[in-house]
């Protein structure tokens, strides 16, 4: 059994979500954690979690939402029984560097909520590693560094702080060196994710991604670490289940 710890699922991206869920189960992906990161996706994600037993939720306002967030609304949404964490939240200086201070403020406010609720966080960090690390050091939280693609040194810093690395399709890309980090990091510090509908792994890169590709990511990790894929499946599933309290 696999768990996709981070994906996006909406009728805007998929013609038939029933088929998506069916494909996931047929590929041994029995649980998926859908990220609602703006008001529209939060509402749809909650609706999907009610319909599909395999769908769990992390909810939060993405850094792109610095001018559109409502924390009272988020606090209410987080009361949903399918919520297992807060996210994705964080910093994105690739697209929003002119709003750095606003992003930091929103980031801290949501970390405060996570601390008050004692739930894990899912962290988005793009071109903002130092600020992300420094802010996370202000809090004693656990969670996942979503779509990790940094250096081994950065990976070790996050791990030391108690965070797991979310490894997705990028590890399979021919132009990516992420496999070098995966090779050196203990499997106990890794969870699997797709970030679907984005970042489809090779050899299907360019197609729309979905959680059914999680075993492809696991296979690449097993090859890099020279271990059986069943070990990758068992340990990463255990990591996710423990962090997000999934039964």
Summarize the structure.
The chain has 247 residues and is of the alpha/beta class. The protein contains ten helices and eight strands.
Can you offer a commentary on this structure?
- By secondary structure, the chain is α/β, with parallel strands linked by helices.
- The protein has one domain: Metal-dependent hydrolases (TIM Barrel, Alpha-Beta Barrel), CATH 3.20.20.
- The chain contains ten helices and eight strands.
- It has an eight-stranded parallel beta sheet, with helices on both faces.
- Helix 9 (214-225) packs across helix 10.
- The longest helix has 18 residues, at 100-117.
Order of helices and strands: EHEHEHEHHEHEHEHEHH
Provide the CATH top-level class: Alpha Beta
Shape by Cα distribution: globular
Number of strands: 8
Estimate percent helicity: 40-55%
Work out the helix count.
10
**Main sheet summary:** 8 strands, parallel
What key phrases describe this protein's structure?
247 residues; alpha/beta; TIM Barrel; eight-stranded parallel beta sheet; 10 helices; 42% helix; globular
Sequence-ordered SSE layout with sheet pairings:
Layout: E1 2-7, H1 17-26, E2 29-36, H2 39-51, E3 55-59, H3 71-77, E4 83-92, H4 93-96, H5 100-117, E5 121-126, H6 129-136, E6 143-145, H7 152-160, E7 163-167, H8 178-184, E8 190-192, H9 214-225, H10 229-244
Parallel strand pairs: 1-2, 2-3, 3-4, 4-5, 5-6, 6-7, 7-8
Helix pairs in contact: 9-10
